[in-house]
Amino acid sequence: MGEETMNEVFEAVCDMADDAAYAQQTLAGASTERKNAVLLDVADALVGNAEAIGEANASDMRDAAASGMSEGLLDRLRFDAGRVAATAQGVRNVASLPDPVGEMVRGRNLPNGMRLNQVRVPIGVIGMIYEARPNVTVDVASLCLKSGNAVLLRGGHAARRTNEATLRVIGEVLADHGFGPSLVASVDRFGRDGALAMMEARGHVDLLVPRGGAGLIRAVVENSKVPVIETGAGNVHIYVDETADLDKALPVIINAKTQRVGVCNAAEKLLVNGAVAEDFLPVVANALTEHGVRIHADEAALTIIANAGIDGLDILPATEEDWSTEYLDYEMGIKVVDTMGEAIEHINTYSTGHTEAILSEDYSRIEEFTRRIDSAVVMVNASTRFTDGGMFGLGAELGISTQKMHARGPMGLEELTTTKWIGYGTGQVRP
Amino acid sequence: MGEETMNEVFEAVCDMADDAAYAQQTLAGASTERKNAVLLDVADALVGNAEAIGEANASDMRDAAASGMSEGLLDRLRFDAGRVAATAQGVRNVASLPDPVGEMVRGRNLPNGMRLNQVRVPIGVIGMIYEARPNVTVDVASLCLKSGNAVLLRGGHAARRTNEATLRVIGEVLADHGFGPSLVASVDRFGRDGALAMMEARGHVDLLVPRGGAGLIRAVVENSKVPVIETGAGNVHIYVDETADLDKALPVIINAKTQRVGVCNAAEKLLVNGAVAEDFLPVVANALTEHGVRIHADEAALTIIANAGIDGLDILPATEEDWSTEYLDYEMGIKVVDTMGEAIEHINTYSTGHTEAILSEDYSRIEEFTRRIDSAVVMVNASTRFTDGGMFGLGAELGISTQKMHARGPMGLEELTTTKWIGYGTGQVRP
Question: B6-229+411-424 has which fold?
Answer without folding.
Answer: Aldehyde Dehydrogenase; Chain A, domain 1 (3.40.605)
